[in-house]
Automatic annotation (TrEMBL):
The keyword Isomerase does not apply. InterPro entries: Haem_export_protD_CcmD (IPR007078). The keyword Cell inner membrane applies. It holds the Pfam family CcmD. The chain crosses the membrane at residues 12-31. It is a single-pass membrane protein. Coiled coil: none annotated. Keywords: Cell inner membrane, Cell membrane, Cytochrome c-type biogenesis, Membrane, Transmembrane, Transmembrane helix, Transport. It comes from Ruegeria alba. It is found in: Cell inner membrane. This is Heme exporter protein D. The lineage of its organism: Bacteria, Pseudomonadati, Pseudomonadota, Alphaproteobacteria, Rhodobacterales. Required for the export of heme to the periplasm for the biogenesis of c-type cytochromes.
Amino acid sequence: MIPDLGKYAATVLSAYGASLVLLIGLVVLSLRRGRKLRAEMEKIEQRMSRNG
């Protein structure tokens, strides 16, 4: 099931590993930013409802 990569095994596996790390990092950063923006929007909505 796993192909024989021969002399390129280290290069291919490190590329897969780097891609996986970058994808996980992007997901984590996106989730963090989403939470931060959601909290900020809730604060703005609360201020708007008090004033208006």
